[in-house]
Amino acid sequence: MKKLLIYIVIAGTTLLTSSCNDWLDVLPKNEQVSPEYWKTKEQVEEVLAQGYHNMRLTVPTLIYWGELRGASIYAYSGKSKQELQNFQLTSSSNECKWASFYSILNVANSIIKYAPEVKRQDETYHESVMNSNMAEAYFMRAWTYFTLVRNFKEVPLIVEPYMTDEYAVDVPKSSEEAIIAQIKLDIEDALSTGAAKEMYDDEDWTGMSKGRVTVWALYALMADVCLWSEDYDGCVRYADMLINSTSPFRPAFVEDPEQWYSIFFPGNSNGSIFELNFDQSRNQSPDDDATASTYPSPSNIYPWTQSTVAALQFSNAMCKRLFDEQTDTWVTSNTVRGYGNTFILSSGTVIGNSNTEGYLPFKFRIGGKDGLSTTRSYKDANWILYRMADVLLMKAEALIWKGGEANFAQALELINKIRTRANVTTLSVQTNAVSQENMLGYLLQERDLEFAAEGKRWYDLLRFGRSQNFKYKDQFINMIIENNSTVSASWIRSVLKNTDAWYLPINQGEIDTNPMLIQNPYYDVTAN
Fold it and tell me: Residue ranges of the RagB/SusD domain (predicted)?
């Protein structure tokens, strides 16, 4: 059987076209997997690889959903993208389609259901391997539902595979609480067997331990889910499983500023937990375009050249934040996440002006620690779902929400650990006098700068606005208004005062197909 890496990297093409693969005999092009298919351990890995491929295909959506409404990244072209960032999306838009995510779910559901059957038929499929494969599938299902619940709040909760054309499509939405409970149960089930791997050993793919699900990825996801669901003690507990681990295979926050570059080039760094891998060198056909197997790497989605009309740029407000952190010496910047690293000037922007516009994301084009003088040859940057800096700041946020001087002090220490690695001045805060709101402001600013363009901004703001019974709802709305300069403040305020508008509409095509689906309340024109 071909190496799993190749299945993952060439975007499933081999899985769907290889004449020597028995998959074609039982796997129709609509991705329904017949129960008769499941015979060998190799077949389980083939379907598992398809799950990673399906995850990779969601990267553009992860960027648009995770960034545009947060107003640190702007769509300067593309009508539907601009409607998304301006809270003007309707159910007819392709931007709210969720089919690609349900494709991941079908793969995960299939493995969870049928891997035990394969074990009964294939005596070489050992239980530990089966449980490891199932842990990966549980992660896929949990992560996918977590993505959906943060964007739609309520979606159909399906835990059985779609096997035949007769599979029922009339599945109603489940509540957010029910979906979160299922997500946590899946992660707990994945961890319960102890089979989730700490690392993978493959001489052909040294990055496998970052490009496939590990126990560390499960801990990170659970910490994230706990933070979202306001289980702050749970968030701290799972974050500490990463932070305090003594395993030789653990991911670790790397404090050397120069190691920041390795996060993005070549990727799969020590500080990484889980990322979706792209690799131009894995093109299998000599006739392929140089980027054929790298789409949709973030290098393909974000601008590759310094165009003044680039489709995705940092917003004016974000440019100001980036510039404020940037040192006075532009070419030899002291902050590793500054000019030539996190961002670059678009053509026509003058160095030395107010620098409140014209910045493009650059971290997915970095080719080494020399910044602008060393750029990638190909558009194949990985998409990072979790890295240790994220976990440190998750813990910091949970501590701030818990409140109290001791928790504030510990959170500040974690924030400053990130700032020290970035080569910027640490924050000096009187933790016995500072408010929770101000501490959350420091935290959100740090996450904004550290994870710029990495698809996290909207969810960070959404947690701020909705947590603890909408404690900071007004501040959340004001923050969106302050950052979004492409639509009027009165429009944003009128929309966001309705918390149902914080989520996406269900695509009308889904509602037409599934009569049990009810439109998200804000977008239900029949109720208005």
Answer: 271-523
